[in-house]
Give the backbone structure.
Amino acid sequence: MDYFENAVRDAALPPDESQAPVPASVQVAVPDAAPTGLQPVRMDRSYAEAPGIALAGLLAAVLTGALLWDRVAPATLYGWLAVHAGLAIATLFLARARRNDALRDQHTRTWALRLTTLGVLTGLAWSPAPIWMGPLGSDALSVAAVTMIAALPVLSAWVFRYYAQGTIGFAAAFLGTYAVYLLAFSEAPLRYPSAFALAGWGAFVCVLSLRWQAILVKLIDASVQQGRYVQGLALANALADSSLRARADFLSNMGHHLRTPLTVVLGMAKLLKIMPLGEEEMEAANMIDRSGEELLGHINQLLDAAELVYGQVRLGHAEFDLRALLEKVGTRMARAAQEKGLIAELRVADDVPHLVRGDESRLRDVLTNLCDNAVKFTAAGRVALLAEKVQGYPTPGRATLKFAVVDTGIGMDKKIAAHVHEPFFQADANAARNFRGAGLGLTIACRLVQLMDGRMSIDSTPGRGSTFSFITEFETAVAGGTTAGAPAQSAPNRVTPGV
């Protein structure tokens, strides 16, 4: 009992598998709390683009100053350029501070207010330029002034496209200042129409900016949702992989802990069988031996399944006698079939080669699992193991072979057949009670066939039986100077009748 308790303590799973620890190799970084709304994302994008836009604005101010050199006093221009340089420096400073603020998502309102203030100050800084260009007329500077009045608000709508309040602040400061100038100093016929035109243009730009922001918010929302979905999917996959590996660890540890004492029990049972025992004692020893062998088979299946989950199974590549292997598997199937009164058949086509290169042990495991299932689920009739060479694959030095196990057992419908390869799958509770087993035989067989670059096919009809088949390729070997694909004589087709 102490041995079993130690094994359980060393390898037991957590009570809730969903809380199983995630290995460091598969951990996914997930924020502690997702920011509410999309405004933090909009702020991040706005401040990320701010440095480049600030430098471009400073360059535009320098070019505008060169255009106004003959109209404005140098000291005034230098002061105006200094204001733009200060705004550029302030923008760079704010972008860096935003990037370094660990709690920026909680300070979203503060950062939004700073962005709006930046838009207002930028609008005020640019407002003197069209005034210095003189009254609107037909000369080049007047055309430049009109272009600036029309273009700068639209450009601000693009600059503040993630946050329309910045555009509204810029337009109000820039166009409002120029409107006040027109109302104060322009001629009477143009005073009010010009001011109203500027107000209408500013309103249009603000509506355009709000519309642009709405479109971008939808795009950002889709991007954020997709990112969260991908992140959640990655986390779910990591947790599922962690749970699967934890289960495989448990199975592997328990298998090793149980197999050692079970081997001792089987050894003692075999010793008892060779001793002079009475009829009842011999029957009890046989029962212990049979039950122990069955339990050992289940434990070995658990260990094989654990190795497959971890990807620790590596196929061998050695020469072996394929026909001799089929003969051994067929003989084992025949013995089990005779105990149930079934007819067992072994049919090996003449063109199946003697010697091939591959993993003999894994092929034996696949065929044995399929044959055991065929016998287990067949109450009357026959079971058969078939092997033939697939025509139409003339690859030199290689042979494409098809193996099939046919039975006349209970069969299954397509819905059940689609899940029989899953670990521990049972069609229903009655099947679990009537047909003893761990539910791993087909899982192991299907995964081993996949490792052999093959695929398991199932053709089954309820009440009439099933056919499990797979096609795989082997490298043919040469013995005695003759190709291994020569017709075989050592493993003839045979039928073993039931008893």
